[in-house]
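Researcher: Here's a chain I'd like modeled. Treat it as a single chain, no partners, no ligands.
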Amino acid sequence: MELHKIASLLEKYLEAETTVKEEKLLKDYFSSAHVDSSLEQYRPLFQFFATEKEIVLTEEEKVIRLPRKQNKTKIFATLGSIAAILILALSVFQFSNFQNDHRVVEGNHELAMKNTQDLLNMVTGAVANSKENLMYLKEIQQTKNKLITK
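Model: Modeled as a single isolated chain. Structure tokens:
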């Protein structure tokens, strides 16, 4: 077979654009003894397919492989279902807790007002304490300036 025809078929094969007939031509070419040296690197690829095609599974191997695949699918489906149920349950639980918390705050206006006043008193005390500390800093600054100028 002509080298340029094999090269174009090989290019089509690598792009996954060949027909079954064209693939058979390539397999026949690479299994023959007359492979061009520039295409010799592709020979192991087609030899691999030929040797893998000859492997025959026993009935026991066929029976063992099929259920494993089905079991994995069933396990993933079951785990996915359980995860979806848990997410749904947690969402409903969080929403109901949010609603209950919201109702409790609405009913205790007096308690909320008292807590707000206590918080404001604490902030006012902290600000007053900060002002006292600033006075100490001013005294230290003045003393430092007196010592430096002398």
